[in-house]
User: Fold this.
Amino acid sequence: MRTIKYILFILLGLMLFVNETQAQQKKTGKKKYSKHKKKAKKAAPVLPTFTLSGQILIVESYCGGAAPSRELLEEVRRPKPCLEKYFFLKKGDANSAKNPVIDVINVDSTGRFSFKLKQGSYCVIQDFQTKPIQLENYKTSNNFDYQGDDCMRKYWADCYQTIDLKENINDLIITVYKKCFGNGNPCMIYTGPMPP
Assistant:
């Protein structure tokens, strides 16, 4: 009887040893796999850098009362360097509160800009698009007919211009169309008095 108990005791010890050895092998295999995954992440390709340069121009509207001469109208509508409006860059092809601003488009006295960026898609946005949208600010504007929250959300999310940077771009033109009333927001339609 003692012999049988002794044999069972030895067999139980062997089973525990085998289970422990297999558990150790599984742990070792997991470690090797996770190290391999980390190495794969480090080996991600480095994106090339390209030059993005161009000019911001402004086209004004004639806002006088009397009918202008053709020469005056052409002069007013001729594109000029825009020095008064700032634009910003975000990654991607739409504006999102999750994506931070990565650069400001600063211009010189001729409205020109130039800087370097990694290859990819970029969204040019206006100043108001750098902050979370505040719909209540648009609903109470005097002399303007608010076109609704959906219109304003879309206007906020749309890029002013999108850029797909796969090579150097040296002639990008960003055009600002200055309206007589308001700031060109399509969700705010002017309903106030017209000039004499």
